[in-house]
Amino acid sequence: MVNSSLSFKIYTSISQLPSEWDALAISNIFLSSGYLEVLEKSAPKNMTCHFIGLFQNETLVGIALSQFLDLNSLTTFGKRDPCLKTLVRNLVFKNFASHVLFIGNNMLTGQNAFALSEKIDLVSALRTLKHAAEELKSIFKTKGTKVHISTFKDFNEFDTQSFAIPQFQNNYRFSTQPNMVFTVPENWKSEQDYIDALLKKYRDQYKRARKKSDGIEKRKMLLADIIEHEETIYKLYLHVAENAPFNTFFLARNHFRIFKEILKDNFLFYGYFIEGKLVGFNTLIKNGCTLDTYFLGYDEGMQREKMLYLNMLYDMIAYGINKGYQSIVFARTALEIKSSVGAIPVTMYGFMEHEVQIFNKYMSKIFTYLEPETLWQQRHPFK
Length: 383
Description:
The protein has helices at residues 21-24, 33-42, 84-96, 122-142, 157-160, 191-197, 200-212, 223-228, 230-242, 255-263, 300-306, 308-322, 335-340, 357-360, 363-370, and strands spanning 2-3, 6-11, 47-56, 59-70, 99-103, 114-116, 149-155, 172-175, 179-183, 217-220, 267-274, 277-287, 290-298, 327-331, 344-346, 349-354.
């Protein structure tokens, strides 16, 4: 498959990947063969992953991830908001948007779709990836599955300029909830520097949360610990996931175990215990100079009593500062509370196209049903 001197190959297994793959993924762990192996072994049941190599002649110059989601296999998209609009949204999904092909990673926030060599430009890569997406749609069609929507996600404002090419002329540009990013000032060396920078109102919030956490034991959990507590971990995760306003997948039961087995110390798992009982957990992923927060879970009763979620946010910030990270990606959801600890919203954009062309004319209206609206107030906790 050739386009503007670039060609592509689609792989179904990491065992097929070119040997040079990880050299291009060096700046993003979420495109590394290790992380892709995690997806291969423990992706959500309704997700099918493919890996795309971009070539200039015989040289690998780009790598990308695609994820296909079958939303028909979900019993719920989220239980928190059982209102009429939610019912209409679910109906729209089931009938017109249940098969979605992503060039990118729907499990993460940020540009984790592809990595490119300096030898090629973004426009050429996008043009070729669009052809790869069409090829993937054909592959699914031969298996009896029709892709309803094709999506490229998540890109900053500057990168969206490269999508102004004929291949994307029918695509609807959209933005969803922002990516909440905490930037660590260079002069901060400890958690105390963070506390000192807070306004009194938010310093009092910090003190109140920390006082509430009395009696909680935080443990760094190793692989054996994760395996031992796997059932409880999954229940805690599922409680949070099912009570989110919207979901397109649920993690596999063994996901955290597989993650730790493969990425080892690049994947951090912290358990929160009260009298020996696991009541919550959070996870972090080391990604170069960036620390990415990942999935978490908690017991609702302990969360309310101990301000557990807020304490987790403070713990993640403290880790990021102490270990010298430049930024912490808190991703989407819980925007206001993340804002209250210092994360700043970063708008991300995507491009989507429906298989039925006439639907694209009305995609701006349809999208209001596909993406739940979130009302929140940005906080400014620093002096």
